[in-house]
Amino acid sequence: MMKWVHPAELGFAVRQILAGWGYGARLLWRLLAMSGRCLRRFDLVRDQVHFLGNYSLAIITVSGLFVGFVLGLQGYYTLQRYGSAEALGLLVALSLVRELGPVVAALLFAGRAGASITAEIGLMRAGEQLTALEMMAVDPELRILAPRFWGGILALPVLTAVFSAVGILGGYAVGVLLIGLDSGAFWSQMQGGVDVFKDVGNGLIKSIVFGVAVTFIALLQGYIAQPTPEGVASATTRSVVVSSLSVLGLDFILTVMMFSI
């Protein structure tokens, strides 16, 4: 038997959702507005690029290599049916630079770096470190959030490029070294079919948009987390889930826009 929901409860829930969206939009606007002041202290951003990017490099590299292996095997057996096995390099490169590179790298970044950001900010909230900064007339958004925001935006495109490059090498290892395809055909098909601006450029745009979305969601969830162990744990889980769904949704929207232009 379905439970009847009082209109007041439904209205309160909708109001809470809209208030959360409004707070998130205002926070994003403030982070973008203080970008100039943040980038002038580039040492803070550099440290975050190292923390978020360098510590995510291992999982990105290993994942890219095995994705390249799988693409090489699956692509070869599919293309072989139509007598086009020489186009394996083109298939692997387009799959990685257009789609798999930005999406999988962003999902891994959300699970590794995004969760770390949310937990770190949430613990600062629980330990009243953010309140202490405010008491010392230090803006926590400028000192804590903005460097991490730009660190994530700068780190994810580089990680995406590493993922795609390692994936292409993985496809080469399977297609040429393991199966025995011609090396010249593998690289020439790739060079002739991959457009720098249309294919690589679209992948770069996707990675930047995903970097903004994943990093901001992680910061927001940590900043509004309840100052309790349960609240920080819940915010960390929510950050990974919302970031992953946002990446998949944005990927569909961006793909439609790019192919319609």
Task: Describe the protein.
The protein has 261 residues and is mainly alpha-helical. It has one domain (47-254). The protein is 87% helix and 0% strand. The protein has 10 helices and no strands. It has helices at residues 7-33, 35-40, 42-54, 57-80, 88-126, 129-135, 140-179, 183-193, 196-223, 229-260. Helix 3 runs parallel beside helix 7 and helix 5 runs parallel beside helix 9. The longest helix has 40 residues, at 140-179. It is elongated. The model has no long low-confidence stretch (mean pLDDT 87).
Give the beta-strand count: 0
Give the rounded overall mean pLDDT: 87
Instruction: State the separation between the terminal residues, measured CA to CA.
Output: 50 Å
The secondary structure category is mainly alpha
Provide the number of structural domains: 1
Tell me the major beta sheet. Answer: none
Multimer state? single chain
- β-sheet strand percentage: under 5%
The total of helices stands at 10
Helix content range: over 70%
How many whole angstroms does the radius of gyration measure? 22 Å
SSE string, helices as H and strands as E = HHHHHHHHHH
Principal-axes geometry comes out as elongated
Enumerate the spans where pLDDT stays under 50 for 5 or more consecutive residues.
Answer: none
